[in-house]
Design goal:
Rossmann fold, OB fold (Dihydrolipoamide Acetyltransferase, E2P), Helicase, Ruva Protein, domain 3, eight-stranded mixed β-sheet, five-stranded parallel β-sheet
């Protein structure tokens, strides 16, 4: 009997869930020149907005060089022009090592937590800390695993574990360790057996199973095991460990202060412990003091990340004042905001809506904060750009066959009377009509016309209400 691995065809390798920006993987900039193009087949997935993409590419370079901390960027443009897509593309360009924390303006409204506390927590999540430590570890192949038991000190017929005898072997020798009974639980959780490659941290007692020794690998073995070679060097060695955490992680971990020295190692070890008390400003200042000392000593490295606030016009004057003050802090991330409003009122500015003395401001942001910002403008898409975007979205949503006339009709509809968001939502219903009704795999122009008759967009619905006097709806 022969067992063969079954590989999925490329058509089956789809996303589990298609989101609004599933096709965005980067800014789509040339690696050599850093310039954007209108090519629909570029690797970033972005189409159009050439100037905005180049500006975001420059912002990404400034973030990597840590020369933009405490600054603010504003993405301003109409609805559906790609502001959120640019922010997500920026996060992909920066990579997973740089913290990127998204926030919507309406998320700060809460009855349990103050608005400023929510903003501060997201600011702290946007500040990364890379800690480099040298840990003493015992690494090798398990040659002996014996549990020594003794009589239960509480009496009765049960027996308690007194210690664990563990034998480890590496390429340069062997060692027999006498371990504390508390490590036996970690060994059991990792399902460690004789022949496994493991390592144990001497400071914390943490156990990690790396895999099975490759000595036990045979061609007839059907177990789903990862076989690794015998570790090189001595069993007892020092290893450089790099750990990435955020300032908010340290705040939560140290909300309950412990006795002893307050060093980075003890702070990180508190990450797995539950929160005991609320995070106060005094605690944050203490964490900042410890972190600043270890940054000066070279133990830790500060990584200013990005805090992205979408629909920033939903914030009120208190939040804007708090953000303005937070930007002046020595530990502050890069602030990226997005809004589709022009000249509008600032919420909770102390003036009643409609009064002559209402506080009006561009984009609904106070001028003192607006002066700190670099503004990136997004423009409306052309018909060619809308066609390219629709073509990309059709592939992401599993529509492999669609007529050119259908895409052109949708591109024309997205700019003439409705928005690009609306026509993108018509792709999948058109695919369902073509498949279920007519039994076709290709989406044609007739399918698009059918979907247009079934669903209305906002402008058409408002037009019908104005012409019909709102018949069929409750009048107030």
């Amino acid at each position: 009997m022969k067992i063969e691995e079954v590989k999925k065809s490329p058509s089956l390798l789809k996303h589990d869930r298609v989101a609004a920006h599933s096709h965005i993987t980067g800014l789509g900039l040339d690696a050599e020149t850093g310039m954007a193009s209108l090519d629909a087949n570029n690797n970033g997935g972005m189409v159009g907005q050439v100037e905005a993409r180049e500006a975001c590419g420059l912002v990404a370079d400034l973030v990597r060089s840590s020369k933009l901390a405490g600054r603010a960027i504003l993405l301003a443009g109409g609805s559906g022009t790609g502001k959120t897509a640019l922010a997500l593309a920026l996060s992909h360009e920066l990579g997973s090592r740089v913290p990127f924390c998204p926030l919507v303006g309406s998320q700060v409204v809460s009855t349990e937590v103050k608005q400023t506390e929510i903003i501060m927590q997201h600011i702290r999540r946007s500040i990364g800390l890379r800690i480099r430590e040298k840990k003493e570890v015992y690494e090798g192949e398990v040659t002996e695993l014996t549990v020594q038991e003794s009589e239960d000190p509480l009496g009765g017929y049960g027996r308690a574990i007194s210690h664990v005898v563990l034998g480890l072997k590496s390429s340069k020798g062997t060692k027999t360790l006498r371990l504390d009974p508390s490590i036996h639980e970690s060994l059991t959780k990792e399902k460690v057996a004789v022949g496994d490659i493991i390592y144990i941290e001497s400071n914390s007692g943490a156990v990690k199973r790396v895999g099975r020794s490759d000595v036990y690998a045979t061609e007839f073995d059907l177990e789903a095991e990862d076989y690794v070679p015998l570790p090189k060097g001595e069993v007892h060695k020092k290893r450089d460990v790099v750990q990435d955490v955020t300032m908010h992680d340290l705040d939560v971990a140290n909300a309950q202060p412990t006795s002893g020295s307050r060093d980075v190692l003890s702070m990180v070890q508190q990450l797995n412990k539950p929160k005991k008390t609320e995070i106060t400003e005094k605690l944050r200042l203490e964490v900042n003091r410890v972190v600043s000392r270890y940054i000066a000593e070279g133990v830790a490295e500060l990584i200013p990340g990005v805090l992205f606030i979408d629909e920033v016009h939903m914030l009120d004057m208190e939040c804007f004042t708090y953000l303005n003050k937070s930007l002046e802090s020595t530990l502050s991330p890069i602030l990226v905001m997005a809004t589709n409003r022009g000249l509008t009122h600032i919420r909770s500015s102390g003036c009643r809506q409609g009064d002559d003395d209402d506080l009006l401001s561009p984009h609904g942001i106070p001028m003192d904060l607006l002066d700190r910002m670099l503004i990136i403008r997004t423009k409306s898409y052309s018909k060619i750009e809308r066609y390219q975007i629709l073509s990309k979205r059709a592939k992401v949503e599993g529509i492999d066959e669609i007529d050119t006339e259908a895409l052109e009709a949708l591109a024309e509809l997205g700019g003439a009377s409705t928005s690009l968001r609306f026509v993108i939502q018509l792709l999948t219903p058109a695919k369902i009509i073509a498949t279920c009704t007519d039994g076709r795999n290709r989406v044609t122009l007739s399918d698009i016309n059918t979907v247009k008759q079934l669903f209305l967009h906002g402008k058409m619905s408002a037009k019908q209400l104005s012409e019909g006097g709102g018949e069929g709806y409750l009048q107030y």
